[in-house]
Amino acid sequence: MESARIIATVARIVRDVGIAEEIAQDALVAALEQWPESGVPDRPGAWLTATAKHRAVDLVRRRETYARKLAEAGRELTEESYDPEPPGPGDIDDDVLRLIFTACHPVLSAEARTALTLRLVGGLRTDEIARAFLVPEATVAQRIVRAKRSLARAGVRFEVPYGADRAARLDSVLEVIYLVFNEGYAATAGDDLLRPGLCEDALRLARVLSALMPQESEVHGLTALLEIQASRTAARTTPDGEPVLLADQNRRRWNRLLIRRGFAALERAGDGRSYGPYALQAAIAACHARATTYEDTDWHTIAALYARLAAVTPSPVVELNRAVAVSMAEGPAAALSLVDALAAEPALAGYHLLPSVRGDLLARLGRNAEARAEFERAARLTRNESERALLRTRARDTGARDGRQGMPGGSRS
User: Which of these, 40, 152, 50, 65, lies nearest to 105 by C-alpha position?
Assistant: First the structure.
């Protein structure tokens, strides 16, 4: 939970994200060694940050160039206080967002920027990042190592970009915030479906970015999407943490304030005819939010919006989501051919939602034996225990009775 803030604070001192990550890890190890005896501090995050800052200052002091750097900076650096200069009107007065922009430096490839930032800011493991990208874990590990080396070799400073430089990094920054939120909204691994801390961090960063770059339509589109998606959090799991499908959610538990904030952000995203990918996804989320009941959902509009999204950002995952909407608008038979066409996609080979969606369609068509096999396959593929339990339940129920009507694709909507 504290890792991103610690890394961002330390990076501001040592000017090297790789070293900052190592120092943050050292502080966490120190906590594991000391807290069992001394007890957990009242403010554990502050303790970790202070420990990391002390170690960072010690490191800087050991550098041969420390005196010269102090002279250039024109101020003293002490263990007790290391505050940035007062922010200017265009500054990003947020260490974590500053870290994202630094890690998204154009010296790195787009893939390396995103992988590194998810590691530093989202705290995601390499296998979780690999699953988000639908690429091998070894590929992600290599990207992260090379990205750290490239930033150090290029002498990239931990600073705020301005003007064209800031705009050039924006797409990568938005992608990172989006992926961090997604990992919090539907965790790729572990016992819990949700990781609320990641959702909260991503939403906070999107709001800061919206205020910083109000002229950017897609910044507002992303903020709208996250606001509306976050509004459903309380209804997405039972008190025991079990997933609740969209069709079964108690919509009175949806956060109406977040929905209103999302609608307002979507209006700021501009004319719907010129929406970018994030605004289009926000418009889809808004269709769900406007529906008083599941049966009131405007699936025809959602299917049309997914078609527009597929044209803007072609992706097998988008096509799978479009198939879900088509199944609700036109029936499961119309969607099954779309899903079957995705079976040969290499990127979806280990994606558990593909057999999950197919299982739902088959169950609705009364092909229960095939549906059960698909749900069992999806359960084997997912690494999230909550989703695995849900999929096994669906497999058992499909075998026990004549189909089950539910939300296609499971619990991620």
Answer: 152
Whole-angstrom CA distances from 340 to 234, 354, 367, 400 are 34, 9, 15, 25
DSSP classification of residue 120: H
pTM, rounded to two decimals: 0.73
Please name which of 10, 6, 93, 25 lies closest in space to residue 58, comparing C-alpha atoms: 10
Distances (CA, A) of 179 to 8, 224, 303, 304, 376: 19, 15, 23, 24, 27
- Residue for token digits 């504290």? 2
- Assess whether pLDDT exceeds 80 at residue 1: no
Q: What is the residue whose two structure tokens read 């001394």? A: 38
Q: State how far the Cα of 100 lies from the Cα of 231, in Å rounded to an integer.
A: 25
Largest CA distance in the chain: 77
pLDDT 10s digits, 281-319:
999 999 999 999 999 999 999 999 999 999 999 999 999
Distances (CA, A) of 278 to 87, 226, 236, 308: 29, 10, 22, 12
- DSSP classification of residue 346: G
CA dist 194 and 172 (Å) reads 24
